[in-house]
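Figure-free illustration: sequence to structure, shown twice.
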Amino acid sequence: MSGHVKNMYPQLSISQAARTLLSLLLVAAIDSVNAGIACRNQQCESHIQRSSKLTRLIHMESVDLLKIYKASQGDMSELFCQMPINIVPDPNISGLDPSERMLSIYSHCKAFLPHLKRVSEQQRDLQPPSSHLLNNLTTAQYRTSGLANQINCIYQTLFPNLPIPLEPVDGPTSIHPSQNVFQQKVYGCVVLKNFKELLSQIRHELRILKNQMCKSRTFAYTNALF
């Protein structure tokens, strides 16, 4: 009887990829619930420190992600990243003042999300389900989405009278509807290379913003008390 019951209810197994996705979804859900509270309650320096830590983590992971990607693409992988592709977002942050540069950071994070998703979709057809590359691409998407939300919080805190546009300020994102395998490999490599460079620039910008904006806001608040 017991053996019959075991046959009726076989043990369920969850792959590592599924566990990773479930944990990321849980974190994203918690973050989304707490996002409004965090934006209202945290101070300027706390916002930027939190975003800086997340950016540093994503940047470190992006270095490994690019290495894993190249290793999984076979011959000529080192050349893929050197080929020009005009549909991949430029990683350079633009703007003259802090508000414009913060908006550019937010815009770049949002602009890279569909490209990371497209690379993940393409590689899903080229890699085995257990591939570390697929797990890392999924992680990069969720972390970048979280970073965009945190940048939004910083922007709202520092510039409450300057709304963030609904669409990325650098223009709409264009992705070619179809690519052959070679084009996919080149496209993915350029996306991940530019993504890594973007994160390096964001780390630099957040350090400057913390020194420029948070100290001036603290000084102004202190003066208002006396």
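We now fold a second protein in the same way, so the two outputs can be compared directly.
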Amino acid sequence: MGSLPPSLDLPSPPLGKPPHLQLLSETTLLNLFKSQQNHLNYFFQNLDFSQALSFTQTLLNSRGTIFFSGVGKSGFVASKISQTLVSLDIRSSFLCPLDALHGDIGALSSADVLVLFSKSGSTEELLRLLPCARAKGVYLISVTSVSNNALANACDMNVHLPLERELCPFDLAPVTSTAIQMLFGDTVAIALMGARSLTKEQYAANHPAGRIGKSLIFKVKDVMKKKDELPICKEGDLIMEQLVELSSKGCGCLLVIDDEYHLLGTFTDGDLRRTLIKASGEAIFKLRVGDMCNSNLEARMGWKLVGAISHYPLALLVLLVN
């Protein structure tokens, strides 16, 4: 691809000055955290727990899917709470109010519950969604922070989340309101988890890639190296000819076997380093694995190698069976 003609060459951007560094005082930041703590305390101290209980009980008894909806920051919170419920084995989904009015409302049925998050309760997109959702026979719940709002008056149930004010100095940016929405939703989620007697094994089944899932779901046979994945060699093999096998299998050692796959010993990265130190000149090219490997006496008593688990370079667990 050619360069631009000289007349069209773009000028080089001027070298900018480093941005002016502004310092935030420790006292200012500390006061903000304390103020947010006070706002959250106001929420906990004034929350109507009878409303919270009715809300939680309704979700617990739902025969269908629990849908959550919201716009803007409240929409992000609603989506997160829905994802939390799904991870707890509860049927849930996020319903975008705009997409709902363009076909996605077809996912709703009379067995479902629709929870609408809105700080003001006057979100236009949610108000437009309400009559359409009601026509589907959905049970409607609003979660708001302003008293006597349009959304709460049009729903079957309302949960009021007490909001003293936003942490924002203008009392505008939704930072405290979204924090209490998240606290409320996640606490209810854990209440549902307990009421449904979800076990750790059931929870792990929905998190196969996480630490809990790996520890409870996967068995040794699921993760161990087998057959061609194993870094195996014979006692008579030359060490220098087995370096590729030692490095490529990612186990940090060679498993020394006989013709019937009986484990005779191991030859580790450490053994290779010690061999290189001890051997001199061309002698290294004549050394065999059996000369330097760690002999395993118990393994010579008839145990057959079937697989290995590696956590290279920390450890290697060899699996044996009679």
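Summary for the second example: The chain has a mean pLDDT of 84.
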